[in-house]
Each structure stands twice: as C-alpha cells, then as structure tokens.
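User: Fold this one for me? It's DUF3077 domain-containing protein.
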Amino acid sequence: MSMETGKTVGVVDFIRSEPAPMGLFRIAPGVPCDYALEQASTVMGCVHKLIEAGLLDEDGEMMWAAYFLNEFAKAIIDDVGLGLKKA
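Assistant: Here's what I get for DUF3077 domain-containing protein.
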C-alpha cells in the first residue's frame, strides 16, 4: 500500500469539550494521504513558530493557538493512519 493510494477516512475529530462529548471539527474523508501529511507538516511548522514566539514574548494567546493547531495536525495524522490501515 503506497501513500498515494490511501485516503483519509474522515472519522477523527478534534477540539473536544466536556459539555459536548464530540469534536467540533472532523477531518474530511477522501483526501489523499500524501497531501494530508504535507498539510499536517505545514501546520506543525506553524506550531513550532508559535511556541517559540509565545515563549519568548510570554504570550498565552500564541500558546493556545499552538495548542489547537497541534491538535488539528494530530487529527490529520491519526486519520491518515486509519486510512492507510483501511486501504
């Protein structure tokens, strides 16, 4: 199974809260895995820069932005993993 033939399954959600036991967002199904991983890598690059800037500036808002973007990237990667297992 190559990465080019795998597709996201669209079952992994993210940004969960206790009052709502489901995620606010979900990865779209049918996205090619190689493209999805490329986007996750781009998001993780942004997370790295936000953490660095947030720590240097002691900016909590940047740190929260990094937290949510990291959760988003993890959801992409987890959904890709499920898509590759399914294929």
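One thing worth pointing out: The chain has a mean pLDDT of 91.
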